[in-house]
Amino acid sequence: MIKGSLVPNITFFDSRGNLDIEKTKWHMRWMFEKGLDGLFLTGSYGSGPLMTNGERIEEFKAAKEVASEFDGKILLPHVGCIDTKSTIELAKAADEIGVDGISAVPPFYYKHSEDLIIRYYKEIIESVNTPVYAYNNPATSRFTFTLGTVRKLQEIGLAGLKDSPLDVGFVSTVYYDAKLNKKNFEIILGTSKGWLPFYYMGIQATIAGMNNWAPEIMTAMVKWTFEGDQGRSEKAYQVMMDLSKKMHFTDSTIASHMGLYARGFGAGFPRKPKILPAFDVPKYKEIRSFLKKGFDELGIEMEMGGDKTIE
């Protein structure tokens, strides 16, 4: 079972746009040390669609290496591509490396019928021995899952669903359909938004972008939730929601890099066409200020790195 707080971890590149695997590994290790439970690799945050399959496989291998330094860490690589052939190539590579699950968004850009989407997942499931999770992200894939779609996918062996839109009606219906009919099927929240109410419904895993730049807060919130400390978990949830809202001023990958720079960690670069704001813009210091306030509200020390890019 996939449980706890995972991250759609960003991928680091150098100033020329080359994959910076050492900095990416540093970031994975840093988050694990802060209590992170697992990695969702090369998804939207992780720039998967901007990478070659070879680069994505290199990141899968790096994640396996870093995770082996810790106990019980979860690896959930995202293998979705615009075409089935490339998706299966990535799925097989992840399967051979050894991961806990394999996730894929429906093939994107083109609009596909439900029948083609079912066939796409069937080919992925049949190509690997690792549990396969669909990824509901209609904003990027142009396909929206329904209960009917999920039921058809369950029949061919789908292990679970990562859901990003968090439509309460859809998620709750899928969850209770599986529970009442005793189906072995997991739902993973594709965001930290809604963590507490969905946890009380029975969902126990979230993939939260905040883990990229403030894993301590997510770790505390999930820990207190699992321990039944309602007061502290609710306080942490409110702080998390406030910080998330403040960081939604730009693309989430860019915001994650900026959050790390604001904390004094050299966070490399995204891959173009994504580009960071100039380091002298006031936003970095503003981020540092409201992050510090959030950490202080929860009584958590905000570790600062030694990078001086943002003074």
Explain what the structure shows.
The protein is globular and about 55 Å long. The model has no long low-confidence stretch (mean pLDDT 96). Helices cover 47% and strands 10% of the residues. It is α/β, with parallel strands linked by helices and 311 residues long. The protein has twelve helices and eight strands. It has a domain at 4-218: TIM Barrel (Alpha-Beta Barrel). It has helices at residues 21-33, 53-67, 84-97, 114-127, 138-141, 147-155, 168-180, 195-201, 215-227, 230-247, 252-262, 283-297, and strands at 4-7, 38-41, 74-77, 102-104, 132-136, 160-163, 186-189, 205-207.
Quick take:
47% of the residues lie in helices and 10% in strands.
Mean pLDDT: 96
Strand content: 5-15%
Note the main sheet.
4 strands, parallel
Number of strands: 8
| Spans where pLDDT lies below 50 across 5 or more residues | none
Helix content: 40-55%
Spell out the helices and strands N to C.
Answer: EHEHEHEHEHHEHEHEHHHH
Distance between the amino and carboxyl termini: 43 Å
Global structural class: alpha/beta
Number of helices: 12
CATH superfamily of the domain at 4-218: Aldolase class I
- The CATH architecture of the domain at 4-218: Alpha-Beta Barrel
Q: Which term fits the overall shape?
A: globular
Radius of gyration: 19 Å
CATH topology of the domain at 4-218: TIM Barrel
